[in-house]
Amino acid sequence: MKDVVAAEWLKLRTMRSTWAVWSGAAASTLIGLVILVIHVGSYDRAPLEERAAFESADPAVLVMPVVAFFIGCLGALAITTEFSTGSIASSLVAVPQRRMLLAAKAVVVTCVAFACGVLFAGLSQVAAMLILGDRPAPLNPWVHWWDAVPSAAGTAVTTLATGLVALGFGAVLRSAAATVAVIGALTLVVPMFAHVLPEPVHLWVASVLIPNLAPQIAGAESAYLLSPTAATAVLAFYVVVALGAASLGFSHRDS
What we know:
The chain is an all-alpha fold. The protein has helices at 2-14, 16-45, 48-51, 59-62, 64-85, 88-94, 98-132, 148-173, 176-194, 201-207, 210-218, 228-252. Helix 5 packs parallel to helix 8, helix 5 (64-85) packs antiparallel against helix 9 and helix 7 runs antiparallel to helix 8 (148-173). The mean pLDDT is 90.
């Protein structure tokens, strides 16, 4: 298993698309921070009576959903590129145990996705605290710097889950384009449209979407409905269903 994991890591880090995805995640982080600077500037120019209505400048909302989308793309590419190039046949010759091969890919995606989640969440939180300075709530979501740690941890966990869900969908769909479309819908499109649903339906729908699970897992104050335990269970359900379907499909379908 150790050798299979090492081989999968070698595959992932030597693909040009991997570096393109990491660059996209970094660029989206910078763009999100620029938007945060603009948001803070608008707050500074606003009259005192309007400042209370400003939304929180939390990078977990502005930055991390897009980062999670890019890490999801990485999880999808970990397996769809082999289907698109036909190299999956060579991989199966080297590792005939299909579930071992899929497990090795899951180990690599887990490590990379979690590392990226921690890196980008941590950097964006530190940058946000420097930008916000001593501005008060509701613009500043943290009283002390350590108040940002649960939020960063929650987004790192949901980023990791997004990568694994994408890996599972990639094994089932066997198409990078289709898998990226599904992950884009889960992380970016559906969360936006969920809020236009009538009450209280939109809260129930929004509460179980992957990007919105981060503050609930962290136990942060939010409008969503799940406890940390329930939010963690929902996130685990996404991963188990995606990887379970991948395991069944990968084991019983032709390569």
